[in-house]
Amino acid sequence: MFYNVFLFFCAITTSAQYKEENPIAYFNTYNEVLITVYVDGGYNFEANVLISPSNQIYLNVENLFKTLKIKCVKEVNNLVGFIENEKKPFTINFDKKRITFDSKSIDISKGILEELGVKYLEASVLFEAFGLNIIFNPRSLTAKLEARFELPFIKELRYKKMRKNISKLQGKPTIVDRIIPRSYHLFKLGTLDWGLSSSQSINKTSDANINIGLGTELLFGQANFNMIYNPNDKFDIKNINYRWRWVNNNHKIIKQADIGPVSGPKFSPAGGEVIGVSINNASTALREASGSYTITDTTEPNWTVELYINDVLIDYTQADAAGLYVFKVPIVYGYTVIKFKFYGPLGEERTKERITNTPYTFTPEKKINYSLTTGIVQDSLNSRFAKIGLNYGVTRNLTIAAGAEYLSSNLNEPFIPFAKVAYIPYSSLVLNFEYIHQTELKGLLNFNLTESAFFEFKYTKKIDGNIDRVVPLFENFEVNFSTPFHIKSFNGFTRATFNSTKYTSFSYNQFNWTLSSYIQKLKINLGSFINWAGANTPQISSNLGLGYRLKGGVLLTSATSYNVNENKFNNLEINLQWRISKINLSASFQRSVQSKTNTVSLSANYNLPFARTGISSSYNGSSLNFSERAQGSMAFSLDDGIVHTGKNSAIGKGGLLLHPFLDLNENGKLDSGEKRVLLSSLRVQAAEAVISKKDSIIRVFDLNAYVNYIIEFSDATLNNIGWRFKHKTYKVLIDPNQYKRVFIPVISVGEINGMVYLSSKGKGRINLQILDEKENIVVETLSEFDGYYSYLGLKPGKYTVRIDPEQLKILNYKALPKVHQVTIKVSEYGDIIDDLDFTLSKKAPKKPKE
Fold it and tell me: pLDDT tens digit string along 717-758?
């Protein structure tokens, strides 16, 4: 009651002062506080406001517009700028007390306050003039800001996020506080993959396999070895596969080199793996060109599939009832790692990688990329093989290429030159042409009809030459079309493919049509396949797949195949999947109509922290089979003396060992006597970090080698208010088959505080400046409404604290003392210097000259 009466009399006093004195005046009954303003999108900022006795808030419009990135310039006693664009200018005239905006003029004489030369406008005035609705909550000292237009502040953050994602995709450098480059070693032990599998059949012999893979760093490059051993077979050293790989994107002449299995003959009929050497100057960094192409593949029905390009998540989708999924992939330059992650409805997770060069052979503008390959073909003749290719980026969207391939076993034509052209006239149209001398002519057209619908045409023409062909293929063309659809409650997409191949004596044609749709929990996949040779009767078959999710996470799928020509079903399959605790169970029944056999299968999978394990059995009426499997990996870290175990493959991958520590002498090294710091959280791009409470080391697993990862730290994760990260963002290049140790220095900062007085009362909104030894302003801070000020975050060193001379000049004040000289000392928990007080007083008026 007393509080309400007090506010009432304050309001009367204020009103009288407002009318009788200056319409722009300072009122002691208005409290100055710091509030948090929330805007859409999860963003917020802080603002100093004046609160009236009736809880109306007044805002510094100049600072508010500056925070919201609204164009606002001070001209004498006016503020001018524009909202959204230059066609919507505004003027805030404090002399005439009017706002002019959008063909209207608003009187603001009853909504202005002034304190220490700063103009404040009442929130309702901002709503009436600009459509900025500020809803204040006095209990929580917060406000919600709503606008009739998109705030430049929000637009800038949105664009910044988009540019950041695009920069990742294009391989553009990201601005960080510190860059950790690649480390090279002559030899260093790395990673190991292992796998065990066995199978047994009743009344038959059993079988077993051991799979061992070893990843190391050898001669400054990545060396991988793999062997599959069967105890029933004699050991042969030829069964050991190997590959040595070296990458340095900063090298001008050679950026990549490989020894071991390399890409073999492409234009020649000879087969066999090639063992040799390959070098090129293409960077592994991801760089996007215009246009895209489509990847279509299959996995388990109803699984979620994520697409990563060089560890950047591009898109995700869900496979249909038959396991079909489709992705639109942006065309990129050079070496690219495409990774798919698969997540099952019962918690399963699988990962497969595909390393590929874009089929469109694009090269950055005005750049030349070369590749050289030579080796021995693993055939009966041990044929010698060599290939050279040159790509030149004429423009960003046009690349020409030429080269030659040599194969000693081609006696009539050992050298085969080739030429290519790749062109993107529009972002939705991609063209690719390729000519192989006396061998073939190829063309490819990929056209995105809409954002989701695409049309693709492929053509291959064989040319009569001097090279003997294993298959007398003469001509081939393929047409693909896919588009999504929405018809009432039906949603999905349809795909049609036609393939025609002409041989010297006959032609062979295929037509495939697929319809994938879903209705609530039911997923449907319907497909038809037609093929015919010459004038023969077409062979027609259809497939139907259904998937339905039952209660309790149980998934029921079925599939059947029907032969239209014979008017009968070929097979029927029903599968049931469910999860009990951490065990994934599956049961299936298959009926083959042709062989009149039934097969029943049962399987169980269980993922341990260090391995994937599983057992399965099947019975088809004549035999009973069992199988068991387990696979996992180990990574050897000599830096922390720990063997890291996991259930995913570790070969060719890398990891991080992050060591946060209190760097008292600020030399960036963990010295004797400096303590480790335990963090509560951090952020690693496209990865998961594990923080150990035992040793405070942060471990990040399963990272792609030769890829830069961004690591972000926040001071809020430190358990001491006087600590700060020396660097908040890191970019770390991952070493292959290694766990890289990175030290994260944390520094201790100091605090200063004091009071600003005017006539023995605390004075708010006084600007205080902190200068370093070179008299550079380190930071500025404002005194609060009661005169108190403080700042936490000063590194150890000498500083000068003063009141802003410009503000003193405007207010005609002087300060005693003029400055405070302080020294922040090195301390584990941060140095604190108190009672740095200033007293303000009016300057005496200058005497007129006689």
Answer: 888 888 999 999 999 999 999 889 999 999 999 999 999 999
d(CA 325, CA 317): 7
The pLDDT confidence band at residue 164, using thresholds 50, 70 and 90, is low
Q: Which of 798, 784, 720 is nearest to 753 (CA)?
A: 784
What pLDDT is recorded for position 776? 93
- Spatial strand order of the sheet with 304-309 comes to 312-318, 304-309, 335-343, 349-357
CA distances from residue 43 to 134, 158, 597, 846 in whole angstroms, order as listed: 15, 11, 63, 50
**pLDDT tens for each residue of 659-680:** 999 998 888 888 888 899 999 8
CATH domain 642-748 topology: Immunoglobulin-like (2.60.40)
The three state secondary structure string of 639-657 is CCCEEEEECCCCCCEEEEE
pLDDT of residue 321: 65
Two structure tokens written together for 468? 């003997």
pLDDT at 569: 87
Beta strands 739-748; 653-662: pairing state = parallel
3-state SS track over 147-198: ECCCCHHHHHHHHHHHHHHHHHHHCCCCCCCEEECCCCCCEEEEEEEEEEEE
Domain 642-748 and domain 750-842, same fold? Reply is: yes
Is the preceding omega at residue 173 within 30 degrees of 0, hence cis? no
CA distances to 269, 410, 477, 512 from 473, in Å: 12, 18, 12, 21
Q: Answer yes or no: are the C-beta atoms of 789 and 769 closer than 8 Å.
A: no
E strands, 695-828, are: 698-704, 708-712, 723-725, 729-733, 739-748, 750-758, 761-762, 767-771, 777-782, 788-794, 797-803, 813-816, 819-824
Q: Is 84 left (phi over 0), alpha (psi -120 to 50) or beta?
A: left
**And the tokens for 336?**
């690219």
Contacts of 360 (CB under 8 A, 6+ apart): 289, 291, 293, 331, 399, 422, 430, 432, 444
Residues belonging to the chain = 850
Asked if residue 151 lies in contact with residue 698, where contact means CB atoms within 8 angstroms, the answer is no
Average pLDDT over residues 390-408: 90
Instruction: Break the chain into its structural domains and give their ranges.
Output: 2-157, 642-748, 750-842
Q: Which residues pair with 386 in a beta bridge?
A: 374, 406
Supply 49's token pair: 């406001």
Residues 6+ apart with CB under 8 A from 498: 478, 479, 509, 510, 511, 512
- The mean predicted confidence, pLDDT, of the chain is 82
What values do phi and psi take at 808, rounded to 5?
-60, -40
pLDDT at 268 over 80: no
Q: DSSP for 288-345, please give it.
A: EEEEEEEEEEE-STT-EEEEEETTEEEEEEE--TT-EEEEEEEEEESEEEEEEEEE-T
Residue in 794, 764, 769, 795 with CA at minimum distance from that of residue 781: 769
- What is the spatial distance between Cα 832 and Cα 750, in angstroms, rounded to a whole number? 6
Q: Which residue has the higher pLDDT, 232 or 272?
A: 232
pLDDT of residue 731: 92
Distance of alpha carbon 583 from alpha carbon 511, whole angstroms: 41
**What is the mean pLDDT of the segment spanning 142-156?**
83
Exposure of 291 in the CB half-sphere (CA atoms within 13 A): 26
Q: Which of 655, 842, 682 is nearest to 746 (CA)?
A: 682
Contact 768, 799 (CB under 8 A): no
Helix (H) or strand (E) holding 667: none
CATH architecture label of 750-842: Sandwich (2.60)
Contact 635, 739 (CB under 8 A): yes
Residue found under tokens 């994760």:
717
Contact call for residues 402 and 362 (beta carbons, < 8 A): no
Task: Tell me which DSSP letter residue 807 carries.
Answer: H
Q: Do the Cβ atoms of 778 and 770 come closer than 8 Å?
A: yes
Q: For every residue of 524-578, which 3-state class applies, written as one string?
A: EEEEEEEEEECCCCCEEEEEEEEEEECHHHCEEEEEEEEECCCCEEEEEEEEEEE
User: What is d(CA 691, CA 698) in angstroms, rounded to the nearest whole number?
Assistant: 5
